[in-house]
Design goal:
Layout (H helix, E strand, L loop, with lengths): L3 H21 L7 E3 L17 E4 L12 E7 L2 E10 L3 H16 L4 E4 L8 E15 L2 E14 L4 E13 L5 H25 L9 E2 L1
Helix pairs in contact: 2-3
């Protein structure tokens, strides 16, 4: 039987061993979390717009559902920036950016998202096909590609469809500078989508048009 004195010594030795083990374990590397920068200016909805447009969450592959910042530094090899993450997933960030741009564009009386369950005449259905940094001639570019289609909610027929892609060069190779390029690329693409959506007619027969 272990005496009280020996039990106390044993407990002390165990505590010292655990403390020593913890001291030699490697510390976890810190991770920088980045928001997607924006230079869009908010604007009130226009009373002369085309009704209500609903912005759905972009469809994307599992790779684009990750908050890691993807980079293609050499042909056909996709990696990520170490110690850096997006504050949200690329589809969620692009949904928010598209919503901001459409609200600023004044083409619709109301612009809402699918999460609000508000009735709308048109649904902006999109597929996010690229959201990565890509080296071109030694310089990183923020590349964002999106396939967009306007769908009449009453009939679920496509009113218009178009592909968008923007490649914005970064001013350097550091992650914060690349993140700034992503912000400019997202703003530019969102403005293009908003301008395109504002030019479309309200759904009647909802025939497919490519513009």
């Amino acid at each position: 039987m272990i005496s009280v004195r020996h039990a106390g010594r044993l407990a002390a030795l165990v505590a010292l061993s655990l403390a020593a083990a913890c001291s030699v374990l490697p510390e976890r590397n810190p991770v920088d979390i980045y928001r997607l920068p924006s230079a869009l200016t908010p604007a009130p909805a226009s009373a002369s717009g085309r009704g209500t447009l609903r912005v759905s969450m972009p469809h994307a592959t599992y790779r684009l559902e990750s908050p890691r910042i993807a980079v293609i530094a050499e042909a056909n090899r996709i990696s990520t920036y170490a110690g850096a993450r997006w504050a949200d997933t690329p589809p969620a960030m692009m949904r928010d950016r598209l919503t901001e741009a459409l609200r600023s564009g004044g083409g619709y009386v109301n612009v809402t998202t699918a999460e609000s369950n508000v009735q709308a005449e048109l649904d902006l259905d999109t597929e996010l096909r690229a959201f990565h940094s890509e080296y071109r001639q030694g310089q990183p570019h923020a590349v964002i590609a999106l396939q967009a289609q306007l769908v009449a909610t009453a009939t679920r027929r496509i009113v218009a469809s178009r592909a968008f892609e923007v490649a914005e060069p970064a001013d350097g190779t550091a992650v914060p500078v690349v993140v700034d390029a992503f912000g400019r690329a997202a703003d530019a693409l969102a403005r293009e989508v908003a301008d395109w959506a504002a030019r479309q007619e309200r759904p009647a027969g909802a025939a497919v048009t490519l513009r």
